[in-house]
Amino acid sequence: MTVEIEDQAGVKVVHVQGELVGGPGSLADAVVDLLDGPGVGLVIDLADVPFMNSTGLAELVRITAQANVQENRVVLARPAPFVAGVLQTTQLDRFFEVCPTVEAALVKLRGCRC
Fold first, then answer.
1. Which of 1, 46, 79, 105 sits at a 20 to 30 Å CA gap from 96?
2. Who contacts 74 (Cβ-Cβ below 8 Å, separation ≥6)?
3. Domains of the chain with bracketed CATH
4. SS3 content of the chain, % helix, strand, coil (to 5)
5. To the nearest whole percent, how much of the chain has pLDDT over 70?
């Protein structure tokens, strides 16, 4: 798995490529420092994540829960079909904010609806 982080006018966009399965070099390790302080907006782009296991799902829950505790906000964007299916099957699509595009996620974080 590779992670690229870019800043879009104060919102961090995290592009994830590869399988989200936890372990060393996990997504949580890559983004934990981005959630430093309140008011941080974070978009996690999942378009290039073809597979996610329960550990990867737990990472997304942990990141989002940590963000909520620190008064930050995480939006998942463009989940690949398998990932979208996992979120729907587990009904965690009700826990996460999910948008069909990165642009829609950025709009949502800036106060509009996607």
1. 1
2. 42, 43, 44, 63, 64, 67, 96, 97
3. 2-109 (3.30.750.24)
4. 40, 30, 30
5. 97
Burial class (CB in 10 A: 0-12, 13-18, 19+), 71: exposed
DSSP state at residue 4: E
Determine the length of the chain. 114
CA gap 13, 109 in Å, rounded: 11
Intervals of the chain under pLDDT 50: 113-114
Residue with tokens 């992670």: 3
CA dist 2 → 27, 45, 54, 77 (Å)? 9, 12, 19, 16
pLDDT for position 113? 47
Q: What is the pLDDT of residue 38?
A: 86
Q: Where are the beta strands (DSSP E) in the chain?
A: 2-8, 11-17, 41-48, 73-77, 97-99
